[in-house]
Design brief:
- By secondary structure, the protein is mainly alpha-helical.
- Helices cover 50% and strands 7% of the residues.
- It has 4 helices and 2 strands; from the N terminus they run αααββα.
- The chain has a two-stranded antiparallel sheet.
- A hairpin with a 3-residue loop joins strand 1 (53-56) and strand 2 (60-63).
- Helix 1 (3-13) runs parallel beside helix 3.
- It starts with a helix and ends in a 30-residue tail after the last helix.
C-alpha cells in the first residue's frame, strides 16, 4: 500500500483508523475501495446491533439514526465509484470511435 492509497483510506475512514489493520486488509482484499467498504460495513453493523435511541427523561436523549443514514450514504457512494481511489484505473473518457446516423425518408401520407 503506497502513501496515496493510505491517505485516501484515512480520508474515507478517519485518521484514528489503525494503519496495521488497513494494511492487512489491503493485502487480503487488493483494493482500497474494498478495504473502505469492508470497514464501513463493519462499523454500520456494529452501530445497527445497538439500540438507535436511548432516552432518560429530563436528563439525556441519544439518537444514532442519523449516523446510520450517514454510513448508508457513504457506502452507497463508494459502491458507485465516488470518490475514485488512487489504485483504480481511470475510465477512458475519450472514445476514439466515430458514430454515424442513418437518415431515412419518412413515408408520405
Amino acid at each position: 500500500m503506497d502513501a496515496a492509497v493510505q491517505h485516501w483510506l484515512f480520508a474515507q475512514l478517519g485518521k484514528t483508523t489503525d494503519l496495521a489493520d488497513l494494511t492487512a486488509r489491503y493485502t487480503r482484499l487488493g483494493t482500497a475501495r474494498a478495504v473502505a467498504l469492508e470497514v464501513l460495513r463493519e462499523r454500520y453493523a456494529d452501530l445497527l446491533v445497538n439500540p438507535t435511541g436511548v432516552t432518560v427523561s429530563n436528563v439525556v436523549a441519544i439518537n444514532t439514526t442519523a449516523n446510520l443514514a450517514a454510513y448508508e450514504r457513504q457506502i452507497a457512494a463508494l459502491e458507485a465509484g465516488d470518490p475514485p481511489a488512487p489504485d483504480e484505473t481511470a475510465p477512458a473518457t475519450d472514445d476514439p470511435t466515430i458514430g454515424y446516423i442513418l437518415l431515412k425518408a419518412r413515408p408520405r401520407r
